[in-house]
Every structure is written in structure tokens, then in C-alpha cells.
């Protein structure tokens, strides 16, 4: 089964608000089918939602560890900022403020690489727990 197809579908689903786009993968063939409510198309086979041979591809929000991921990055890359970043999470807009801090520290590119690697690992773990060999 091609991981790239699942990853592409994951990004397709995650590039919109939760529920706006969806995708399923057929467990046996690895074929991926996508749908977009806003765009008005649906490639998913009829009945795939209830068929155990089809798995719904998760949205990033379903996998994203959020705050723990940010704190892990800060601990590894700029531990002196840990208390400040933890305090940011007590207020609204924490992720925006963290990104501003990372930009000032010239760590935004490192954050993107770190985040992308962790999300890929989480998606691969999801595949493994679903019995998909990729």
C-alpha cells in the first residue's frame, strides 16, 4: 500500500476545516477516495462509511498533539523559553504567539521541519494501528 496516497489524502482533508472534506482508503487495495462538500464532489463508493473495508482518513486535528508538541520543540531547541511558552498557553492565541516567538528566535523553519516529521510519524502510527501496511 502506498503511504504517499494516504498522506496526500490526509493533507487534502486537513487543508480545510474539519468536516468540510473527507477521504477513505480501502483496506485491501489501498485505493483512496476523496470528497469535498464545498466543491460538491464525492468519489467515495456508496456505503463506504459503513463498510469495515474502508477507513476514514483522519483530519490533522485528530492526530495533532498540539501543546505537547510545541513544548517538546521548545525544550529541545530553546529551553530557556519554556516558562514563557507555557505561560502563553494560558491565553487565547497561544499558537500565534509561539510562532511569533519562534520567528524572533529564527527557529520557524526548524519548527516546520520538526512539526512535519512528528505529524508524519503520527500518521504512520495511525496506519499501523489500523492494520495498513505502508
- Element-level helix/strand string: HEEEEHHHHH
Poorly predicted ranges:
none
Query: How far is the N terminus from the C terminus?
Result: 5 Å
* Count of discrete domains: 2
Task: Please describe the biggest sheet, giving its number of strands, its sense, and whether it closes into a barrel.
Answer: 4 strands, antiparallel
Radius of gyration: 18 Å
Structural class: alpha+beta
Q: In DSSP terms, counting alpha (H) and pi (I) runs of 4 or more, how many helices? A: 6
Shape: elongated
**Number of DSSP-assigned strands:** 4
The strand order across the widest sheet is: 3-2-1-4
Strand content bin: 5-15%
Binned, the helix content reads: 40-55%
Question: Whole-number average pLDDT?
Answer: 94
Amino acid at each position: 500500500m502506498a503511504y504517499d496516497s494516504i498522506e496526500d489524502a490526509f493533507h487534502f482533508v486537513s487543508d480545510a476545516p474539519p468536516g468540510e472534506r473527507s477521504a477513505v482508503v480501502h483496506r485491501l487495495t489501498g485505493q483512496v477516495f476523496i470528497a469535498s462538500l464545498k466543491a460538491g464532489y464525492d468519489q467515495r463508493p456508496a456505503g463506504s462509511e459503513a463498510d469495515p473495508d474502508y477507513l476514514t482518513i483522519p483530519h490533522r486535528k485528530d492526530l495533532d498533539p498540539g501543546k505537547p508538541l510545541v513544548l517538546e520543540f521548545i525544550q529541545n531547541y530553546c529551553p530557556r523559553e519554556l516558562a514563557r511558552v507555557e505561560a502563553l498557553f494560558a491565553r487565547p492565541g497561544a499558537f500565534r504567539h509561539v510562532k511569533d516567538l519562534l520567528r524572533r528566535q529564527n527557529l520557524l523553519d526548524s519548527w516546520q521541519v520538526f512539526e512535519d516529521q512528528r505529524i508524519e510519524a503520527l500518521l504512520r502510527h495511525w496506519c499501523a494501528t489500523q492494520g495498513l501496511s505502508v
